Model the fold of this input.
Amino acid sequence: MKDTYILGIESSCDETSISIVKNGVECLSNIVSSQIAIHQNYGGVVPEIASREHIKNITVVLEECFKQANLTMNDIDAIAIAYGPGLIGSLLVGLEAAKTLAYLYQKPLIPVHHIAGHIYANSFVKPLSFPLLALIVSGGHTELVLMRDHFSFEKLGSTLDDAVGECYDKVARVIGLPYPGGPLLDKMSLEGEATYSLPHPLDDSTYNFSFSGLKSAVINLNHQLKQKGEVVNKENLAASFQKVVVETLIKKTKKALLDTNCKHLIIAGGVSANQILRKSALELGKELNVEVSIPPLKYCTDNGAMVASAGYYAYKLGRRADLYLNSKSQEELK
Done:
């Protein structure tokens, strides 16, 4: 059987990444140009600056990708592009690059939803076995999704307000951590104990999540302690916050696994790098005798490899886009 090589392009936020993946599971090259150092000066991603940096980086990243894989465009079967959701200006840079390459080299253009990319990052760990449950945790998404087959997405529940990653970053900022605060808060929590009492948000029988109340509770607690002249133990506050978040995610995920009788759980999105969440998901798998997949850390954050992997399965299903494909800042998973 002939091997299939997919070029994947990801530029939805502040990483310019291009990758070549063989048969959906073998990453031959994955180049990521991060803008974190630039946006740290502003405490978060500045969309206009992000777009300009993508323009500066895209051709350099493309050249390095082919150099690392020791391939040329003639070897590529199709081009997969993350067209949304994300920052519209950033998305457009990657999209125009993908459409230009597709036109010049007469290659099929494969549209890939950004979150589908995160889901298929798990293909680098083990094959997806259906039906499966995906817990999607990122800066913009918190969802439980049932998959009965490739590219079959049934959203069981989602966040009603803040995404979990966004909540991490905001709480991190409150306790004085620099951007991006989520990973730093994760590390800090390991040095503390969950001594502060915080509410468990939306503790009900649905599959939905809500984190705005928890975020507000941390902000208010931090303010009240300072008003009283008490020293805030940042490590303990981080540990208390993280304990509630992970318990909430795991409790809802457990209910969904039992209700759907899925035997494969995958964790997807940038927050899947969280150490306590990874540990708790594996423990849940053992408890319920469910197979658990979590991407390697290098595939948790935005990257071209996840787009290329998802693009491979979309390509096999006959999914195609024409050169009128446009970026979308918001888009339902499909």
